[in-house]
Predict the 3D structure of the following.
Amino acid sequence: MFVEFTLNGEKVSAEISGETTALALLRENFDLIGAKEGCGVGECGACTILVDGVAVNGCLYLAGKLDGREVVTVEGVGGEDALDPLQKKFMEHGAVQCGYCTPGMLLSAKALLIRNPKPTLDEVKVAISGNLCRCTGYTPIVKAIMAATEEGK
Amino acid sequence: MSSLEKVVGVDGDRRDTLSKVTGRERFSGDYKVPGALALAIARSTEAHALIKNIDSSKAQALPWVVRVFTARDVPGENSYGIIPITKDQPMLAEGKVRFKGEAVALVAAETLEAAREAAALIRVDYEPLKASFTPEEALADGADKIHEKGNLCFEHDSLMGDPDKAFAEAAVVVEDTYTTSSIEHSYMEPESGFAVMEDDIVAVTVSTQNPHYDHADLCRLLGLENDKVRVKQATTGGGFGGKLDLSVHSYVALATLLTGRPSRLTYTREESFAASAKRHSFTMKYRTAADAEGNLLAVDAELIADTGAYASYGVAVAMRAAVHAAGPYMVPNSRVYSRAVYTNHVFSGAMRGFGVPQVALAHESQMEKIAAKLGIDPIELRLKNALKPGDKTITGQVLGDSVGIRECLEKIKAVRDGWGAAADDPDCFRGIGVGAMLYGIGNTGVSNPSTAQIRVNEAGGVTLYTGCADIGQGSDHALLAICAETLGLSREDIALVRADTKLTTNAGATSASRQTYISGNAVKDASEKFMAKAIEETAKITGKDIADLCFTGTGVKGAEREVTLTEIAESLKEQGNELIGEGYFDPETVPLDHHTGQGKPYSTYGFAAQLTRVHVDKATAEVKVEKLFAVHDIGKAIYPQGVIGQISGGSAMGVGLALMEEFDHASDKNFDTYLIPTVLDVPDVEASFIEHAEPTGPYGAKGVGEPALIPTAPAIVNAISDAVGVRITSLPANLERVHRALQLMGGK
C-alpha cells in the first residue's frame, strides 16, 4: 500500500506492506533511528513518536495509519542548532545516561507540553509513566521537564 | 583555556548527550551494514536434556537461507566464561542443553524473516533429564548432574576469631532466614551487534561492558589468533552487569568468519529475557550476636545462590557476598559459608552489586532485630558498630583512611530528625527505615589492572586512549576530567579513543564500580608520564634544565618560546621513540585464603547509608516509598552530576528489588509481566555524597555505581517493618507478602 504523510515538516511517501509498523518504516525507509525498539509490545516507550501531536508507540502503530497525518520524531523536535527547551534541559539536568529511552521520553514530554504547557509535577509523571528508564531513576528527567516548562512560561 | 581552571569536580558538558537528545546517536542496531546476513537462533525447548539429533534440513532448504550452524561448526573451543576456572558455557549447545532458551543452532539468511522462519523449522530430538530449579533440588541425592563436575559450582569459607565462643557468651542472639529473587537487568537496549571482515580480521561492533574480555573469548571460540579478531564497543544502552557476558558477539563473529559476509543480530526482548544473565537469587541463614550494650560480637551466615545453568560470574558473586556478609560494621568473630549452585535456570551472572544487595538485606534486617531487642535506636546501634579507619573487616583487612560510614549515618540521623513524625492517616501505616553498606571497589582478591595511553594527535593536541567501556554512566566524562585536570587542560581539549581492541589496551570490565578508581588512576598515571616525557625531551631539544620547564597543555615552555607537542613528538620519532604516556594501575590486593577467607580483597571501599519513609495502604497493602534520602562516601566526586545520577538510578533499581521484581523463569517473557519501576513507583530521590578522600584514588575518588543500589532495599524493608510491626524476610515485598504481614499484624 501507499502512504503519504508529513514527516518532521516535510511531505513524504512510501510503498509499504500492510503489517509494516510505523517504527520500522521510519527507521528503515527514512533512516530516522531516534525511535528505538525496546520491547516490541508497547510496554517500554522507547519507540514513542508523535502522530498529530499525540504520543504513540511506534512499534504497535501500523504505518498504513500514518496516511495523511503529521508525524514528528525526535529528529524533528530540534536539531543541533535549534534545540527544543526540553532537549536543552535534559542535557543540563543529567537526564541522559545511556540515552536509549531519551527520544521516547522527550516525545512523551513534548506531547504533554503541546496540550498542556504548564503541567503540574504529577501531570509530568503521568505523561512519562509509559516510558521506562533503567539508568536515571527518573528524578533527573522529571526535573528537566519541569525546568523546560518553567522556561516556556 | 587557563591551566588554573579546575576540571575535576566540575560537571561540564558530556560529549554524548547532544547526539542522544537529537536522536542521532547510533547504537549497534542503528547502523546500516550493507550486505549483512540476518541471524536467528533456534533455542532449547527443554530445561535439561540430552540432544540426540538436530535436523536442520527443512531450515536449510528454505529460500534465502544461507547456512545453518551447530556446535560442530564452532572452530575453536566451544566453551567460554569470564572466570578462568569456570569457562563452562558453549556458544551452541553440544550434546546436551542445560536451560530452556539455550542456543542450539544458528541460522544465517538474506532476510530476518527467513532466518526466523528457518530457526523455527529446526527439529531437535531431546532425551529429557531430571531438571533442578532450586539449589536444594540440585544438591539433593539423585539429582541429575548439570555439569560433569556436579552441581556445586563454587564454595567459599570464611572464619575469623571464635564465633562459637562469642555466641555462647552473647547477651543477645538474633537469627532468621532471608531470601531474594532472581532479577532481570532490564537495560533498555537489548543485546545487539554486527560483524564484518576487515581484510582477514573479524571485526565485531557490539553493545558491551567489556570489549577486551569479549575479544579473548571470541579468539578462543573461533580458534583465531589475537590479531585476527577486533571488538569495538558501540554506544551501549545500559548494562548493569548483564552485558559482561558474551551474547550476540559469538554468533555474528562465527557467521561472518565462516561465510565471509557481514552479519548482524539484535535480540528481541523475549530472547534477551530468555538467554541473558539474571541476578542470583539467594537464601541466607543468619545468626548475629551482640553484647548488652549493642556491640556486635559475631556473625554466622550460610549463603546459597542459584547460579543457573552456567557459572558466568557465579564464583565472584558467591565470594563477594561472603566478604560483605557483616556489612559496614566491626565484627570480631565470624563464620561465613557461601555457595553458588548450578540449576536448570538461565544462568545468573553479574548484576549491580554482585551478591552484596542480597546480603545487605540480611545484615541490615539483623541490625534492626538487635536494636529492637535491646531497645536501642537503629541508627545509634549502627553508629556504635560502624567501621573506622584502622578497624579490621571480617577478612582481616585493616581499613585505610577513607571510611566514611559514620558520617553517612550521622547525616541520615539528622535528616530523620528533620522529617519528624508523619501526619496521621487513617488509611495507611507509615514507617521510616535505614539501610547501610560497604562495598569493595574492584574485583575480589585478584589482580585487575587498567591501562591507558596519552598520545599527540595530528592536530597537535592530545588523545586519550582507554579500553574502558562507557555504558551510559559517563565514565568517558570522568576519565576525561582526570586527564584534563592532570594535564592542565579542559575536557574539550582532549580527543578520546575508547573501547576498541585494535586501538586501545585492556582497562578491564566496566563492573565492580571499578572504572573511576582503577582506570581513573591509569589515566592519571598516563597523563603524568606523558608530561614528564614531554618535559624531558624539551630539555634535550632546548638545552634547558628540566626544573625550568613547564608543561602547558599544548607544549612545553621554558624561558623563550613554547616547544609544541608536535615538535617534541617529531624529535622523539627521529630517535625511534614516541611521545606517549603509558598508564597502569592495579589495586593492591591479597588473595583470600582458601580455608579461612582471610586476605585483603580490595584496596578501598565505598560506604553509604539511605533513609526511606514508606506508607503501607491498610486496605490494598500497597507500599509507596514517599521519601528517599541517600548519602554515599565516594572519596571524591570527579563528575558530581554523574555521581548523583548513579545514586538516583541505583536507588530506583533498589525500589524494584525491594517491592516489585521477581523474575519468573517459567512465565516472564517481556515487560508486560516483568514489571520494573516506572516514574510513578519511585520517590524523588534526594541524593548526596560525602568526600572522604581515598589516598590511593585519582584525586581521592573511589566508586559509586553499585553502592547506589545496595542500601535501598534494606531501608525500604526496615521502613515497612517500622510501619506494620512485622518483618518481611523475602524479597520482593510485593502485595502478597505485605498483605500477609498486615494479616499477621491484625492477629497480634
Notes: The first strand of chain A starts at residue 2 and ends at 7. Chain A touches chain B through 53 residues (CB under 8 Å). The two ends of chain A are 44 Å apart (CA to CA). The mean pLDDT of chain A is 97.
